[in-house]
Amino acid sequence: MIFANNKILAFVFLLITQSVFGQMQLKLTVEMPNCKNEEFLLLQGDEGGTFVIDKTDVSENGILSFSWEGNYGFYRLLGENEKIDFMISTPDFHFSLEGKPEGGVLRFPDNDKNNKFHYYLSVFEALNRNIEDLREKLNALNKRDSSYKELRSQFKNVQKEKKVLVKDLWRSHIDEWPARMALAQQELMPDFKLKGKDYDDYLQKHFFDYFTFSDSVLQATPIYYEKIGKFLKAQHIDDLIKAESYEKIKEVINKLFWLTELEPTSQKYLANYLMNRYSEKDHPEIYHVTVDAYKVMNTCEYVMGNKVIQNRMQNSYLNNTGWVVPDVPLNNSLDGKIQSLSDVNSDLTLLIIWSGSCIHSREMLERINDLYPEYHELGLEVVAVSLDNNLNYWQQMVSQNYYPWVNACDTDGLNGVTAEQFNIYVTPSMFLIDPSLKTVAVPQTFFQLEKELMEFFK
């Protein structure tokens, strides 16, 4: 077979590197005799949320089977109103279900930790169900009713039983993922006396008591994103959106970012999830609130006059898809042939404005360097404009890190033409630009950048 051009060859190589070197062939088989002909989705999480790998029906023989290229980790089977979470740790994974997912009996291979995980979940589910049933009965009774005192005692005992289990798992088994993943799905239930706002306040205050945003096993799983979604629901986010209460929405989103314990990976996943859920096209106000909250902790901000910063922040909202970028000069370009953005000859240009003193900039360039060879063959060029004032320092940084793309430096920094024209107040800042200098996308994270590149060059 002869490829017509290098772009096709490079794209095939890119697909091979992603599928062969980054993933493995996985198979899942589930015996579900009580779920014949029912459809199930196989879900997994990534840096931007939960996505569907595949869907299929349970066969007439009661067998559900999936085969795909992926990695070990947490997955979810989702039925019409039912779900099963599990950890895959072998290429040919199997388990069985007697009954329906809700209330049925799951059996995993001997010594598989999924058995312990689902045991913990089943105990919690029984306790939570009992608590809710007793709450409803107590709220329907008058304090003078003969059964009120007995039911109240039962309610407190069940609540205490749940607290004891939570504390035991937290203290004695927290080093094991089954305990951490089961605890991550739990909330401390308010006392039955609390209603309305008091109920909501208690629930929200303790919502993440046993959920660790920085837990690498929990991060980017369906459970992780489901918990965040439940928190947004508990904060009545949909009602706030309908009422266009953007100040309150800002409070909710900022609160979520602070709850991540300022852990960079958690904030990255949270930002990607929120930007996917509330896209710039459908919810521009919420999208930009998310971007601003993310930038506070994950970019390098610079001290300038308050009015200048405010103007640039406000104007940066206009730097979206379709914006024709200014043809700024590429000062001190290390490529003598390229002196401005319009001199770049590529199907797509990634402009990244950065600083050598900014750790977030250096980390982003390192990740871009990893994908550059493959996408460069497809038609991507990177133009990295530094805002460093010291020319020698910048040249050493470029040389030491072997940045192979177009490198330039505006030594006027934040007061220079580049920063002013692109409304830069943080680094790194990225723009994907087509040959006509029209903005294709303004990615805020590496996940968004990679997603846009794959979409453009598919």
UniProtKB/TrEMBL annotation:
Keyword flag Coiled coil: yes
Keywords: Coiled coil
Signal peptide: none
Coiled coil: 124-168
Gene3D superfamilies: Glutaredoxin (3.40.30.10)
Segments forming domain Thioredoxin: 319-458
SUPFAM superfamilies (UniProt xref): Thioredoxin-like
Keyword Coiled coil carried by entry: yes
Pfam families: Thioredoxin_8 (PF13905)
PANTHER family noted in UniProt: PROTEIN DIPZ, THIOL:DISULFIDE INTERCHANGE PROTEIN DSBE
Protein name as catalogued: Thioredoxin domain-containing protein
